[in-house]
Design a protein that fits this description.
Layout lengths: L4 E4 L11 E8 L8 H8 L2 H11 L11 E7 L2 E9 L13 H18 L2 E4 L11 H11 L7 E5 L2
Parallel strand pairs: 1-6, 2-4, 2-5, 5-6
Antiparallel strand pairs: 3-4
Length: 158
């Protein structure tokens, strides 16, 4: 029995009351233009602009696998850009998803959600273009968020 709530719908329009954090996985190359990020950018320009700036200025900041950037897009709404994907293509080193990086990033999301008193909302992170398996991601979410008392809703888009 998972403590994760699963719903059909759009993770860019999170359900419920209170402060919310939308968590999603980004790559480590500065690329933004396919998958869930397209839906984010249609709704708000700030997460993409912040991510691209974060990557561009990476020599002087914490941009790396496992890092998270929190971007406020509304009075009670944040987007967590989590770097959890090495590159963008499946190649000799396998699929781009990096489970350890997602685990590290979700740890930071749990801390911020706790500070904000927020719930966390997401698509099935790491399982689209990143090529990951939900059977590997779900236990990470349970360990890093659910066990820390952070409510999580996962959205399956129609």
């Amino acid at each position: 029995m998972s403590g994760i709530t699963y719903v059909r719908g759009d993770a860019t329009a999170p359900q419920g009351k209170g402060v919310k954090v939308i968590a999603h996985v980004c790559n480590d190359l500065g690329g933004w233009g396919k998958g869930f990020v397209v839906a984010l950018s249609r709704r708000w320009p700030e997460p993409e602009a912040a991510y691209r700036r974060w990557h561009r200025e990476r020599a002087g900041n914490d941009f790396a696998l496992g890092a998270v950037q929190f971007v406020q897009v509304g009075p009670y709404l944040w987007v967590a850009n989590m770097v959890g994907q090495r590159g963008m293509r499946t190649g000799s080193k396998g699929v781009p998803v990096r489970y350890a990086a997602i685990e590290t990033a979700l740890g930071a999301v749990a801390v911020r959600a706790g500070e904000l008193g927020a719930s966390v909302h997401m698509p099935r992170i790491g399982c689209g273009l990143a090529g990951g398996r939900w059977s590997r991601v779900e236990p990470i979410i349970e360990g890093r968020l659910i066990e820390e008392g952070v409510p999580v809703t996962v959205y399956d888009h129609d």
